[in-house]
Write a structure and sequence with these properties.
alpha+beta, three-stranded antiparallel β-sheet, 132 residues, elongated, Double Stranded RNA Binding Domain
């Protein structure tokens, strides 16, 4: 579990979108978190995995932008944004094992074809009866 120093990201308070009455126009309770991946202290391999991620929150300069506006208080939205940043970085830190292509066994192929033949027979019996 990686932790990121608070000095590596920038938190900005903005006005939240959506319903909320008059209060939403006055209070900047939503949070924009900006995390510069290239300038961070993360390992080069982790930086490469984060930058290779096809995420719409990632800018062309390599800055990850997270907007948190779920809660009514600024403090809760700050915690949520930081939590999401940690989740993204830790997800990129876990390397998936390489998948090797395997072939189905002879027996499984045979069973599959037999079940298809059986299904075909059942469906063939559903046809109209003919007078011969």
């Amino acid at each position: 579990m990686l932790t990121i120093n608070a000095s590596e990201y920038v938190l900005t308070a903005i006005r939240a979108q959506g319903a909320g009455g008059q209060n939403v126009n006055k209070v900047a309770s939503a949070i924009h978190l900006r995390f510069d991946i290239v300038a961070s202290s993360l390992s080069e391999a982790l930086k490469a995995r984060l930058l290779a991620n096809k995420d719409k929150r990632l800018t062309s300069e390599g800055v990850l932008v997270i907007k948190a506006q779920q809660f009514r208080t600024q403090e809760s939205n700050k915690k949520e944004a930081i939590k999401r940043l940690h989740m993204i970085v830790n997800a990129a830190n876990q390397v998936q094992p390489t998948r090797y292509a395997t072939r189905p066994s002879y027996g499984s192929q045979k069973r599959r074809l037999e079940s298809k033949t059986q299904r075909g027979r059942v469906k063939a019996l559903r046809g109209r009866m003919r007078d011969e």
